[in-house]
Specification:
mainly alpha; 15 helices; AI-2E family transporter
Length: 460
Amino acid sequence: MSRVPGWLGRVGSGLTRMGERLDERRAAAEREPDGAPYATSSTDAEPDGSGTSEASSSAAPRDHVPAPPAYAPAVAAKAEPVAAVPWGLRVAAEAGWRLLVLAGALWVLAKAITSVQLVVMAFLAALLITALLQPTVARLRNLGLPRGLATAVTFIAGFVIMGLVGWFVVWQVMENIDTLSDKVQEGIDELQKWLLESPFHVTEDQIRDIAKNLRDAVGTNTEEITTAGLEGVTVMVEILTGILLAMFSTLFLLYDGKRIWNWVLKLVPAQARPGVAGAGPKAWRTLTAYVRGTVIVALIDAIFIGIGIYFLDVPMAVPLAVFIFLFAFIPLVGAVISGALAVVVALVTQGVFTALMALIVVLAVQQIEGHVLQPFILGRAVRVHPLAVVLSVAAGGMVGGIGGAVVAVPLVAVANTVVGYLRAYSQEQALRQSPAPHGATAIEVAPVDPPPVSSPPSNS
């Protein structure tokens, strides 16, 4: 019985040493996460434990911070700043800076166009003339003429006809300006008498002052009215330069348009080149259809309105018809201006009844044009919403004057065609690159062969 306490003491001391060794191993593992032991390990120490404790404490680094225990509460990390911004505000900001970049690019483009307005307008006019004359070149080449000869014949004939039309307008205006001035003064006298007898209580002195001012404006400024905008050496030089640029551009576009387009395609990135190459012919067909249809509609308007005002005995009926033809190239606005000009001339020269009849003729022809001729001739290829037409004409007029108003609508029509084609092309490419259906979807979309038709039983 005396040996039992000694045996228990030895067991207790052994358990104590095992606990110390486990603590040292845990401390060594915390000091070195990769598991490599320090130079002095607790397993190599003496069993008395005194040297082990000192060696391990001397090997531990002084600046080591032990890891928090497992039962310590977790501290939530701070959220990213972008997560604190509401989703709607982030979307608005993303769209806002992109709109600012787009607006800046458009502003720079408008400034660049304004600085070289003469060159841009001449080239756009050449594009419209080329779209009008190019089908003639194609027909002549189909008849067997070489490309150079077909281009030369079409170019010379086209510009000769346009020059004759311009000369005819100027000649008619110069020949009839004196007669028109006399008619205007007679119309002012008749208007004066009508106002005196009207219930508007207009005094004779007021009418006399207004009539005197109108007579002076028409009688003394006739020459200035006919030559407005054509005075000055600078203006004449700019007009001649623009005409020459348009002529040379038209000649080269007619002769070498395909090669020029291929060169432009090389400037497009390779990934976007197939889509742009397909959109180009679509855009050119749209522009050609627009110019051809506009010329036909303008010619019909000029002929029928000219015949109407001619039979109403309105002076300068032929020049007015030519003006109606030219102003028809400005959609909506041009028809209103040219029709109002014909009505005003009829009013001041032939009276209220003739002006009313001229107004009926103009409105009838324009209604037939808007509801019958344009949908039938132009078709759906160049259909543009009236609001887009008005806004584009206004923007084109602000940027480039009358020339900008003329080219604004065809550019919008071409842009509409290009955007529609590129959208359809991108959707088609996305469908081609999408993975093939599989599983139940593949079974649903897979074509099912029709069941074989059983032959009728034979009688044999």
